[in-house]
Amino acid sequence: MAVLGAAILPRVRRWLTLLLVVLAVGALGAAAAAAQAQSVPWQPDLASARDYAKHRDGIIGFAVRTEKGFWGWNQKKQEPSASVIKAMILVAYLDLPSVRGRDLKDKDRAMLDPMIRYSDDHATDKTFNYVGFDGLRDLARRVGMTRFETSYHWGRSKITASDQTRLMLHLDGFITGPDPVIVKRHRDYALKLLATIVKGRWGLWKVSTPGWKLHEKGGWGAKTGWVNSQVALYTRGTMRVAVAILTHNDPSHDYGSETLRALGKRLLRGLNEQSVVE
Question: What is the pTM (predicted TM-score) of this model?
C-alpha cells in the first residue's frame, strides 16, 4: 500500500498543479475581459428601445447624445413642448444681460424655484415675461437647434428630441467651451433645481443608473395624455449623457409615464458606475 501511495502521489500533485494553472488562466482571462468591457464606450440599447416604441400607442420620438455620440428614433419629429420648455425658459432667464452678471435675488428664486421644481405655470408666466419668444429663439439658435418653433403660448412651442439633447448636454458647461449656455455664477443653482424635481418624478426617475446624477424636466399636459415627455442630463465625473423622450397623444397619462420608464430603461441599459462614456 505504501508503494502504491508513493506512485499515486506525484500524479495527484501534477493534477493539482494543472488545475491551479487552469484556474489562474481563467481568472486572468475574466479580468482581461472585464477590463476590456469597461474600456469599451457605453452605448444605448437603441434597437430594443426602437422595437418597444414601434408597438406603443401615441407619437414617440427619442434621442441620446454624448460628447462624441448620437442615437435617435423619430428624433427630428416636432411635438408640443408643454412644460419641458421650462428648462429653456430657465436657461434664457439666467442668461439675460440684467441677470447673468449679478447674484440671484429672492425675487428671482421666487419665480424659478416653483417653475422648475413644481412646474408651476403661474411662476412660468412671470419668468417668461422677461424672456419672451425672442429669448427662446435666441437660445435655440445659440445651442444649434434646427427645428424649434414658438407658438401663441410657451407651452405650445414645438420641440424635437434631437434639439433638446443639444441643450441638456451643455447645461453644466463641461462641454460648451468658452461660451457656456449658463454662466458659472448661476450654473450650480440651475442644476440643483433640475435635480430636485418635486412634481413629475416618474418615467426616467424610475430607471436605475447607479453612480450617475439625474437632472430632468418633464411636461405632461395636465395629466390628460396629450403630452408626457422628459429631457434629462446624466452626469458622473466629467462624463455626460443627455436624453430626450417625447410622447404625444398617449391613451392616458399613466400610459405615457410607462412609455417613458420603459424607453428610459432600454436606452440607459448598462449605464452604471463602471460605464465609460465618450
Answer: 0.86
